[in-house]
Amino acid sequence: MRQFVIWVFIVGISGSITAQPSPQLLFDEANTLLEENEFEEAMAIYHQIEYSGYQSGALFLNMGINAVQLDSLGLAKYYFLKSNDFASTRYSSEIALEYVNSQFSRQSAMLPKLPWDKAVDSIKDGTGAMGVFVLGFISILISLFLVLSRWFNLWVFKKQPALILSFGALSLLLVALAFYVDYVDQRYSEAVIVTAEIQVKQQPDTNADLVSLAYEGYEITIDNLRSENEPNWLYIRLGNGQYGWIERGGSKTL
Amino acid sequence: MIKTGKSIGFVLSILLSFTFSAASAQEITVSASLTETNIFAGESVRLNIVVSGQSLNSIDRPQMPSVDGLRWLSGSTSQSTNYSYVNGRPSVSYTYGYVFIAQTPGEYLFPSLSVSVNGEQFTTQSIRFNVLNPETVDPTQAQRSPDIYVRLEPSTSNPVVGEQVIADIVLYFKSEVEVSNYQPTSGWKAEGFWKEELENQRQARTTSTIINGVRYQRARLLQYAIFPTKSGELTLSPYEIVVQVRNRNQRRDIFSFGLGQERMELNTLPVTIDVRPLPSLNNATSSGAVGTFEITRSITPDKAFVGESVEITTTIRGQGNIPLIVKPEFEFPEALEQYDPQETTNITRANRQIAGTKTFTDIVIARNEGRFEIPEVSMAYYNPQRERFETIRLPALTLEAERDPRATPINTNELRFDVEPITGLANWTSPSSAPIYSRPWAWGMLLTPFFLLGVAFAFKTYSDKMNTDTAFARSQKARDKAMQELDKVHPNGDIKTGYFHIEKSLSQFISDKLDLPKAGLSHQKLIKEVKEKAGSTLSNELKRLLNKCETITYAPNPTQEGLKSDLTKAEELIKTLGKSL
User: Fold this and answer.
1) Whole-structure pTM over 0.80, yes or no?
2) How far is B513 from chain A (nearest CA, A)?
3) Which CATH number covers residue A64?
4) A22: DSSP letter
């Protein structure tokens, strides 16, 4: 009986390993294929890791290098931008991005961002919405502590009411800011055009008037809220400030 | 020797007098017009002769000849004068009116008239007019015809895609109707068309017309230029307009109080336009232009440094569907890096047409030195008047790019891709991007401080009340005090002392609970208060216990068991009273 239980346990463990190999194992396998110039096969395994939900700066950097070898520069830019979010690969991805950007024959004019948008972006890239939310929570706790210490005469001083109000207002502001940054993060996504050329239309219709053309490597912003009702189209903002619709599939969302 | 001084002066004086007389003759205009050219027999019509010019010294009025079909009312001649400035110079015009009555039905010609102005003879144009027989008009049909209506009148009903169609919004109203003002309603949709409102006159000019034997005043209120964007049958939806009208037959409103005025909403009927497709085009590039255009292309500068931006400007100028013209695509050499093109449109809406310029600017940067050629291209636009494509050849453009001697030489190695893949162990993460509002713990974090605040507030209120409200404090502490008193009872101790503590505990509990005086209370008073607040069952039990406590001294055989039982009953009574009081 005991032997049977051990046997079932071993079979179960080995079965689960077979069903879902570790990302590191797959990564090593894909890296070997990359070194052997088997780029298509390597990319297929990298994709397998990516779709399983695991992320790493090294994974995206290697995928970008593989995409360069496959002459898919839009895709390469997309992966280098993703690897740029990881501190461990930031330096390499910046060098790679400089090279990839120099290879595009068409460059998109980029409008400078408004100060408010810059501030929201810096919060997103810095503490993040969750960090601001936690700061707001701490501020609420401080405000609460000051209120209770005054109520129960534990710690009373002259400017305590003003301090309570200040921390209360600050906590409201921080929580509201956290929700706003989170809303912006959820509603808008950065993306990269990965096809050679894509038409930007005024309406989500192939017969609609043309607004502009977007080329491989263009960085765009997707409005997820407006796009959610159109299964085949995405509402985007180009770097030069123009808005329009593109067919899904021509871009990859960061 | 020949004397020349006198002869030169003579020639100059002749030239000046000739120039002056020619200029005076050119300044004077004489015209004649009939207020109606379709007149019913018996109706009156006026002939207006207008003499205008900058220097009118003498005018001899024309003598009215006998005109076939009309009879002149000789006593009805009128005259008016109007002064104005034309090109910064004063001008005057005299208008002479002659009223006629139409006679016999038929087609006639009002003869030309001769007018002497400043001693010079001017002749007016002859005018064709018809005198209609009023008996031919069906009176019932005339009665049925509406007093006022509005129509949408396109200039053509069979244009090609992109051709300009003028859509007039025209108001028709009978003579007895007076239109004081009109207001177009916004939101007219011309689906399938690009729409541009043309420059409209502030005050619509009316003309007279006869429709189905009924005389109407016709006023063109608004004008739009519309351009079909696709072929097939397209329908222009009804145009809505609000007019303020008054019937002239009603009594006059001499103080302008708005008496008898009526507000009417009028709609045009839908108008269907059959749009033809453009013919096929071979060996040329079309940017969708329909009209008459000039197309040019230029490069600025044609010599540039490597990395310097160069503009290729394509200008399409003329009349037609300028807003709908799309950017022509040119073939650029691979070595030229292209940036997003710019587009500017400048249009005018005067003189019943959309005209102007559309400019497309391609921005390129040479990435290497050399001589680059942007090839020749043939561009076509469709001319609807000639019903064919017109082709314009845009010559090839040449750009000579050279390296800037002041620029830092580019190290070609910098452009090499020398990023190596990362092998070995990687740091794996599984990020989650769920929004904050969908995470329950976030709401928990937000609500916890408020919950704590609520609890603290309740505790503080309770504490404050205990310190300030004696009755409340006594009531809250009553049970504890009573129980402490009962704890003094030893079941195996002295029976009388035990009942003393039970009596004290009960009395103290009830007086604390009901905020009664601490001393001087009789048992009857306590029983009465309990009966009022908690009912007779509990008061009877209380009465029994208190009586026993009072009479235990005289009891024949008090036992320890009886004390234990009464102690238990007293505890239960205090618990029950604690809930009831």
Assistant:
1) no
2) 28
3) 1.25.40.10
4) -
